[in-house]
Amino acid sequence: MTWINIDLRFADVLYELSAAEQYIASFERQLPLLVKQEREKLMARIKREGLNGDDDETAMYLQEFYDLTDNVLPRFFRGTIIVTVWTIFEAGVTNVARQLKSEKKKTLDIYDLKGMKRNFLRRAKNYFTHILNHPLDVNSKEWKDINMLQVLRHAIVHCNGRLDSVSKESRQKIKKIEGNKVGLSTDRGYLMFSEKFVEEIFRSVDGFLKTLIANA
């Protein structure tokens, strides 16, 4: 019998990445069904109220329907995914950091570093480089994408994705991201993400964490 040696130190991180991948795919499959359900509810409402389809009330209901299905539902669910993917990333990096801290017999924890309260990436970079002597690959495309993810996650969590509520510095970063035509839009004053954008952000987190784990 051949035995396979599996490193189980970071199994939880890998399970969470797998679950997130399935969740993202599940939502994108579910979205057309949600739109269909909302359309059926709209048609039933128009029929129930005896509207003829050409009146002002029908026009208002249609506007509400398109706003819900084209903007609110995608924004809400994809924004939730963005936050979840960041959470998995931060927890995964922290998990690896604490495992290496234990193995290298270090006393300083990653969250003991001062002055970087809301910039986890700077904290992680400094901790892995100066405390663990295990530098992160900060020149990779994945790291660049994750920097973008951090800005967007903060805007969603602290400002509900409203562009006019984020700081001037964050707004400038967001507009720069939008200008790169990667699938982020702020046309309606909120952060809106395309399916492709969310998938690519996840792929960057997935690739970065798996490489970090493989080299730990």
Index terms:
216 residues, mainly alpha, two-stranded antiparallel ribbon, 6 helices
Counted beta strands:
2
What is the radius of gyration? 22 Å
Q: Note the overall shape.
A: elongated
| Strand portion | under 5%
Approximate helicity band: 55-70%
Strand order of the largest sheet: 1-2
Instruction: Quickly count the domains.
Output: 1
> Secondary-structure element sequence?
HHHHHEEH
Secondary-structure blueprint of this entry?
Blueprint: H1 11-48, H2 56-103, H3 120-131, H4 141-159, H5 168-179, E1 184-185, E2 192-193, H6 195-214
Antiparallel strand pairs: 1-2
Helix pairs in contact: 1-2, 1-6, 2-3, 2-4, 2-6, 4-5, 4-6
Write a compact overview of the structure shown:
The protein has helices spanning 11-48, 56-103, 120-131, 141-159, 168-179, 195-214, and strands at residues 184-185, 192-193.
Kindly describe this structure.
The protein has helices at 11-48, 56-103, 120-131, 141-159, 168-179, 195-214, and strands spanning 184-185, 192-193. It is mainly alpha-helical. The chain has one domain (11-214). Helix 2 crosses helix 4 (141-159) and helix 2 runs parallel beside helix 6. It is elongated, with a radius of gyration of 22 Å.
